[in-house]
Amino acid sequence: NAKFIKLGIEIVGYFCLAKILKNYLGEKIAWLPLLTIGLSPTFLYFNSLQLSMGTEVSFFFILFYILTTIDFKKPVSALIKQILFWSLAMLAWLSYFGFIFYLPILGVYYLYLLLRQGRHAFYNIIKNLALSFFIFLLPLIAMFFYIKNRDLLIYDPLLQRGLFRSFASVEQRQTTQAAHQLRTGNHFDQR
C-alpha cells in the first residue's frame, strides 16, 4: 500500500535527520530542531491528509545522510554509498517531481566532498563524477527499457503529461502558438 511506503520513507528520513543533527550539533542541542521539524504543522497537515506532498523532504534527509557518511579513503564503501545515493536521487526525482529543487544542493555538497580530497586526486574526482552521472541516469534508462509503451513516458496525450511533469500539463494550443510566435517574431496574442 502506498501509505505504508510513504510512512517508511518518513520514518527513515526522520532517523537520518536525527543522526545528522546529532553528528553536527551534539546530543544536547539536536533534540530541539528534530522536535521542531517532527511537530511541524506543515508536515503534520500533509501526513494527516495522506498526501504525497512533502515526501521529497524526507528523501532529502535520507540522501544528505548518505552523503555525510561517504568516506573516499575507503573506496569500496564509498562506491557502494555513491551507487545508493545517486540511484535513490533519481528514484526520488522520478517519484516526486519537486525533488528537482534538492538536486543542486546535494550536487554541490557532493562536489565539495570530492574536492576536499585535494588537488592530487584530480583523476579520482573525474572518475567519481563520471561514475555518478552514469549511476544517476541508470534507473531512468532501466525504467525506459522496462516500460513497453515508451512514448507515454515522454508525453501522454490523454493525460497531457509526461515524465517529470506530474501536475504540469502542456496544452497543444499554447505550444503551437508559442512556436508560431517564435518563428514569425509576432508576440501579440491574436485570438
Topology, please?
Blueprint: H1 2-25, H2 27-38, H3 41-48, H4 55-69, H5 75-95, H6 103-115, H7 122-146, H8 151-154, H9 172-184
Helix pairs in contact: 1-2, 1-4, 4-5, 4-6, 5-7
Terminal CA distance reads: 47 Å
Query: What series of H and E elements makes up the topology?
Result: HHHHHHHHH
Strand proportion = under 5%
Low-confidence stretches: none
Estimate the helix proportion, in percent.
over 70%
Total helices: the number is 9
- Integer-rounded radius of gyration: 21 Å
Structural class: mainly alpha
Number of strands: 0
What coarse outline follows from CA principal-axis ratios? globular
Mean pLDDT: 77
Description of the structure:
The chain is an all-alpha fold and 191 residues long. It contains nine helices and no strands. The protein has helices spanning 2-25, 27-38, 41-48, 55-69, 75-95, 103-115, 122-146, 151-154, 172-184. The relative contact order is 0.08.
Offer a quick outline of the entry.
By secondary structure, the protein is an all-alpha fold. Helices cover 71% and strands 0% of the residues.
What are the key terms here?
single chain; 191 residues; mainly alpha; 9 helices
